[in-house]
């Protein structure tokens, strides 16, 4: 069996029926947090540079380097085209400021050219995505260091049609494994580990928790990858759909390639395709086995890669990986029946 070599065409591979979206961190996904500040109109444009220089000394915007100090006035036809951010409300000497005099000490900033203050809301954190940037900029001008890959991924356009065809094929292999597991009385979840450098499948597994409650499809697949490298802890020989291929071979001999000294540490750099979002145990096993990317179909109520937790984005873990959801998600008739 060499599913990795097959090329899907036409209706066999309807890659337009699904979109792979990235599962981003909470920081990248959350709404824009706003904090209140005092701003004032710049009455004399020629004073702008001096005002900014003096305000930066009196009220430095520590931790808010993403905020621009000056913005164009939003009101059309205003006699004062510029407005300057004076200070955060929390930094003001008196939070009930009514005049620019009470905001600026006489020996700090010369008031020349500044109008009376008013309250504005500014973004508390630098935007991490284009969506956050566009929302933040509606309140106050904000700088943005765009990660173009994230922007394209959020549009669902990161993967080209040929790449999607390959992804489709790998997920179909995982679905076939899920079906085989279900026939043997297991939960209908299938998984495939692929080397993306060669598009070669390293291991295929399905849920085997009838034997052992820990043998979720992902755990089975990781153990099969380890076995392909001469390790592994378990035998899944009685499950013909669970198999591995040694990295140097073209078939599934279920014989580890002991001479392959180039083998990575378990799943380093590999991709995992799994029909259902992994649980916490499986997600942590993916961290420990150094998986490169995870692609899953449907979400799970206890899912640890987006739904209940986002293990792959935990900063205090020593390995992180990309996660994409929605692969073949529109194949509801298949997925709902099996998972
Ligand atoms: Zn699991």
From TrEMBL:
Q: Which organism is it from?
A: Monopterus albus (Swamp eel)
State the family it belongs to.
Answer: Belongs to the cytidine and deoxycytidylate deaminase family. ADAT3 subfamily.
User: Is tRNA processing one of the keywords UniProt gives this record?
Assistant: yes
**Pfam families given in the database record:** dCMP_cyt_deam_1
User: Any idea where the CMP/dCMP-type deaminase domain is?
Assistant: 165-324
Q: Which GO terms describe its biological process?
A: tRNA processing
Q: Which cofactor does it need?
A: Zn(2+)
Name used for this protein in its record: CMP/dCMP-type deaminase domain-containing protein
What are the GO MF terms of this UniProt record?
tRNA-specific adenosine-34 deaminase activity
């Amino acid at each position: 069996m060499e599913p990795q070599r097959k090329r899907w065409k036409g209706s066999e591979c309807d890659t337009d029926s699904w979109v792979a979206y990235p599962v981003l961190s909470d920081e990248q996904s959350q709404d824009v947090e706003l904090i209140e500040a005092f701003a004032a109109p710049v009455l004399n444009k020629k004073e702008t540079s001096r005002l900014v220089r003096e305000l930066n000394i009196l009220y430095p915007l520590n931790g808010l380097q993403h905020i621009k100090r000056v913005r164009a006035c939003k009101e059309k036809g205003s006699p004062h085209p510029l407005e300057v951010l004076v200070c955060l409300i929390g930094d003001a000497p008196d939070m009930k400021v009514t005049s620019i005099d009470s905001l600026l000490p006489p020996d700090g900033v010369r008031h020349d050219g500044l109008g009376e203050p008013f309250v504005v809301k500014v973004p508390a954190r630098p935007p991490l995505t284009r969506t956050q940037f566009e929302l933040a900029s509606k309140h106050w001008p904000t700088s943005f260091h765009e990660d173009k890959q994230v922007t394209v991924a959020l549009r669902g356009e990161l993967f080209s049609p040929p790449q999607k065809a390959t992804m489709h094929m790998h997920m179909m292999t995982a679905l076939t494994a899920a079906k085989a597991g279900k026939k043997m009385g297991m939960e209908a979840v299938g998984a495939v580990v692929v080397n993306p450098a060669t598009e070669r499948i390293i291991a295929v597994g399905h849920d085997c928790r009838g034997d052992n409650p820990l043998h979720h499809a992902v755990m089975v697949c990781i153990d099969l990858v380890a076995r392909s490298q001469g390790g592994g802890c378990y035998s899944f020989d009685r499950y013909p759909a669970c198999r591995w291929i040694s990295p140097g071979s073209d078939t599934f001999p279920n014989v580890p390639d002991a001479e392959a000294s180039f083998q990575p540490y378990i799943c380093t750099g590999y991709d995992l395709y799994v029909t259902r979002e992994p649980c916490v145990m499986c997600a942590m096993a993916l961290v420990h086995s150094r998986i490169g990317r995870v692609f899953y179909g449907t979400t799970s109520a206890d899912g640890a890669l987006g739904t209940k937790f986002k293990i792959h984005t935990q900063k205090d873990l020593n390995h992180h990986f990309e996660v994409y959801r929605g692969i073949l998600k529109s194949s509801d008739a298949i997925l709902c029946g099996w998972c």
